[in-house]
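Standup notes, protein team

Yesterday: finished cleaning the Brassica campestris set.
Today: Vacuolar protein sorting-associated protein 35 structure.
Blockers: none.

Input for Vacuolar protein sorting-associated protein 35:
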Amino acid sequence: MIADGAGEDEEKWLAAGAAAFKQNAFYMQRAIDSNNLKDALKYSAQMLSELRTSKLSPHKYYDLYMRAFDELRKLEIFFMEETRRGCSVIELYELVQHAGNILPRLYLLCTAGSVYIKTKEAPAKEILKDLVEMCRGIQHPLRGLFLRSYLAQISRDKLPDIGSEYEGDADTVTDAVEFVLLNFTEMNKLWVRMQHQGPARDKEKREKERSELRDLVGKNLHVLSQLEGVDLDMYRDTVLPRVLEQIVNCRDEIAQYYLMDCIIQVFPDEYHLQTLDVLLGACPQLQPSVDIMTVLSRLMERLSSYAALNTEVLPYFLQVEAFSKLNNAIGKVIEAQEDMPILSAVTLYSSLLKFTLHVHPDRLDYADQVLGSCIKQLSGKGKIHDTRATKELVTLLSAPLEKYNDVVIALKLTNYPLVLDYLDSENKRVMATVIIRSIMKNKTIIATAEKVEALLELIKGLINDLDEPQGLEVVDEDDFEEEQNSVARLIHMLYSDDPEEMFKIISVLKNHFLTGGPKRLKFTIPPLVVSALKLIRRLPEEGDNPFGKEASVSATKIFQFLNQIIEALPSAPSPDLAFRLYLQCAEAANKCDEEPIAYEFFTQAYILYEEEISDSKAQVTALQLIIGTLQRMHVFGVENRDTLTHKATGYSAKLLKKPDQCRAVYACSHLFWLQDQETIQDGERVLRCLKRALKIANSAQQMTSAARGSTGSVTLFIEILNKYLYFYEKGIPQVTVESVESMIQLIKNEESLTSDPSAESFFASTLRFMEFQKQKGGVVGDKYEQIKV
């Protein structure tokens, strides 16, 4: 036998034991070959004595055990041959009990018992009962565990099960179950006792060793699940109560967690469904440190998969009230474990919600009940700051969106926003983004103001920062812009065919956006303005509307609404954006023949230009927009149009750079001649603008010459020539052939023309255009024929 000296290395112990084992195994095999039963028993007992060591770790001991197992299989075959040669199996069964040490004796007894059962000279149940009782003689945890594992291994195909060749009387299944349960109980006790042997400092090491041995115990439950005679009644009345009793009574964290998981994994889903109350009743009785969260989550996952694969069993879930039992069990578990982390509680309800959505997708009240139970557990805890818990809470809230692919259904869950409130600001933004992505992906239209209000409450993490004024400071600028752009895209999914309801929707949006902080307005106001303008186009003409301006939704009311929301932009500050939106609204008012409203929008745009737009480049761009928009306006009377036009030309002359002044002034010429409106055809003022532009161009060239010592570019002159040609072709009397020829001659006389390739090319293109127009013939061709180049 291996020496138990404390100072020797474990590898040496194993090597020495393996050497002694191999030597005795050799002599045993020689005795078997010579049919010498006495020597075979002698050397097998000496060989098995090596398993009496206490100095090997479970991993090393397993190595030695497997060697013994292989040799014992040979011995079992030899015993069987001996019985065929006339040796009495009863005498053999008694003979092996003469071994001196109890551990070898019991290994040999189990081996002989296996042969005894095969011969069928005695009922299998009697022999198995004797063996399982005799094994009580080994109470050392490690040695006893492996001995009983050997017993379980050799007996698994010899149990008196229904349909087995060893089947006995009417109670045969009970006998088989009783044997396995008894062996399981004793093995679990030995396994648990391993935890309490040795010093406290080795606790982690022992837990690791025990985890390596857990399958030895769990195999008993697998054997039970494979017995043909273990039907639902037997499982419910005998197997499950006995196993749960052992699990609860052992009071060991590792054993309780592993064995509960074993029950869930090895027994049929149908059995779990029919015995839910019994299985769940044991959960609150487990040790507080047991990871019951994982156990229950796996149970619900299995039941969900069972329902998904077998839709015909869905009525049984309602019949056995599976949801109610699971919900109550989770509540009791959390109540029993007062120190349960928030993560575990949230994970349990997340798993329950997924179970509910898969098994009872039509029962929104169940889903809402889960959320309500979750709120009950979270109440009084404030915002959740545990990273993993908040991530799990986001998973819980995302489940209904993933299942139904419809935010409208989630909006029906009254407890949904209440759960959302427990997230911190960062995770509220994450959840809001998830909701918006779901809407965009599934093209979900939110068609009522009430639902829009509820939706905005869910995504308030993206549209409001008043509660946490410091919140935006920690948000990456790129992330912030991406989030706000997603909100902007969302606005186009909030739509109703009913104009009155649509106006309510955009009013709700306005109320939320205007209180969302100035930084967001430049993202959210433009799409809101676009939605309002779309609504105006859908309204009936006032002549077709019996209520006219007194209607609940009219163009006038919407324009008033637009004015209110755009007013907020300059304080954002986004004056450029507000300026553009005012002009856009003015053009919309023009199409509705609302002169006072259009004039007011233009006035606001002019005020912004004067007070807020100071950058020279921005002024040039803004002035181009003013001129382009004003040119398209037909609603203004003479007085209003003259006022606005005069302002625009005044702004043009005040630009910082002379070239910009020149281009803005000749652009203003288009404000005085509209081909399709006879009331706006003032050739004198067109010519005045062109001459003023030419004067400014001359001034710009002189300034360039004085500053740089060279003549400036003639590009401005060529641009003015093109304007002359445009108005000449339109037939304005004041723009004569002589004025065009004069411009051409002026450009030709410029010394800088040949020194500027781009200007020279521009002028050549203009001349080619004139030649092309001549070749067209007709009225246009005749006009260009008169021009002498």
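Follow-up from PR in the comments: The radius of gyration is 46 Å.
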